[in-house]
Amino acid sequence: MLVADRYRLHTVIGRGGMGEVWQAQDEVLGRPVAVKVLLNDVADASAEARFRLEAQTSARLNHPNVVGTLDFGTWDGRCFLVMELVDGGSLAAELTGGGPLRADRLAQVAQEAAEGLAAAHEKGIVHRDVKPGNLLSDRHGTIRIADFGIARFVDDPSAGLTTTGQIVGTGLYLAPERAIGTPASSASDMYSLGCVLYQLSVGHPPFEADSPTALLYQHVDAPPVPPHQRGAALPPAFETYLLGLLAKRPEDRPTARETADWFRSGAWRGAPEPLPPEEPGAGPEPHRQWDSGPGRHRGAQQPGGGPARRPNTAGHGPAPAASSASTGPSHLFSPSAQDTGWSTSVHRAASRRPAVRTSARRHFRVLAVLGGAALFVCALLLGMSMF
Ligand SMILES: Nc1ncnc2c1ncn2[C@@H]1O[C@H](COP(=O)(O)OP(=O)(O)OP(=O)(O)O)[C@@H](O)[C@H]1O
Question: Is pLDDT larger for residue 2 or for residue 281?
């Protein structure tokens, strides 16, 4: 089939919620391309608008780790989007085909995906659907981020919700703040990337559940099991950094730029530094002593200091960790995680936190997740009834 007198469609590569992606040939320029054609059964005005937005959003990005957009148009009543063809498959396929990734491959994935996200975030674009199927690999193994179909600009008030109020994105990778209805931010993409890296290292995403509500609840309130306890063979520094991406509080996660730089520096090969001896009479928020140091980032690990609230982007060591854990209630900490530096330290911090504050925070979280889940289910039903 020849689209727009120019793109000859050969074989279907895959099918998503909105479109069918074809391997094709641009007969004018004589090069292979990928053509995404909007599916007939979703081709209403709003789907066309979203599809057009995907084209316009991705066309603003010109980066080696983002799939390039080449053309967009309407042909025979259907919208189509022409992209660079990425011929190595997705990371979902890589995981299915070869099992969990080795640490060096995973570090490359982390760095390159973060580079692509940094380029988007620098332009104010939030991807909102970072998942293994949207991280493509070319024949040389270079990572290319695809599918800006539900991306939004951060200052777009509709970010995070569709017109029906439905939360968009994939539940397995949904950031806690989005699970409770807060609009997506660049930090939400970093949480999703953390979930993806976790899945690629372990074989399973950090949280799985039988119902959407239970899944959302886990994103909001459950600490991830450290990857090594699920069989991953990651250097300790890598693991702690990965857990930092999964911090419950968006402000505690490293940015895409920091993440890309950290992985490029090779710091992921390192081991966390030993924890400092616990000082008698230390205050109730031990991490503050590191906040005030000369580190590049708020809460960054200082040499000789303890774990920070964010991963140590300077590459000195341990870091951090699930900052959510460092700020959350003590019952959230996995007892089985005590053999890692970060989890030991968060136990110290939690034990000094006033119980009443912990309890209030806990109740707020439970209410928030229940409210968010109810909103999600209602929106889902409403969305289904509309289609
Ligand atoms: N430029 C491309 N080159 C090669 N393969 C691609 C390209 N873009 C998408 N694909 C592949 O095509 C398939 C469908 O992609 P698409 O973006 O339509 O859907 P999805 O991301 O799987 O689902 P959804 O859009 O509903 O989130 C995926 O398997 C993806 O890996």
Answer: 2
Task: Confirm or reject: Cβ of 149 under 6 Å from ligand 1.
Answer: yes
Residue 64: is its pLDDT beyond 80?
A: yes
pLDDT tens digits, 242-294? 999 999 999 999 999 999 999 999 999 987 655 555 555 443 333 322 232 32
Q: Which range has the worst mean pLDDT, 110-124, 167-181, 278-292, 308-322? A: 278-292
- ∠ CA 79-83-88, nearest 5°, is 130
Instruction: Assess whether 261 carries a catalytic annotation.
Output: no
Query: Where is 151: in which H helix or E strand?
Result: none
67 CA → ligand 1 middle, Å = 11
Task: Collapse the DSSP code of 21 into the 3-class scheme (helix H, G, I; strand E, B; otherwise coil) and give the result.
Answer: strand
- Ligand 1 centre to CA of 191 (Å) is 21
**82 strand-pairing partners:** 35, 71
Pick the CATH number of 2-84 from 3.40.190.170, 3.30.200.20, 1.10.10.60, 3.40.1160.10: 3.30.200.20
Query: What's the topology of domain 88-269?
Result: Transferase(Phosphotransferase); domain 1 (1.10.510)
Q: What angle do CA 95, 261, 192 make, to 5 degrees?
A: 40
Query: How far is residue 384's CA from residue 387's CA, in Å, rounded to a whole number?
Result: 5
Catalytic residue among 5, 87, 129, 252: 129
Instruction: Name the residue at shortest CA distance from atom 12 of ligand 1.
Output: 14
Instruction: Output DSSP code: residue 90.
Output: B
Residue 288 confidence (pLDDT): 29
Task: With H, G, I as helix, E, B as strand and everything else as coil, classify residue 341.
Answer: helix
Sorted by where each begins, the domain ranges of the chain are: 2-84, 88-269
Cα diameter, the chain: 76
Closest residue CA from atom 11 of ligand 1: 14
Atom of ligand 1 nearest to the CA of 13: 12
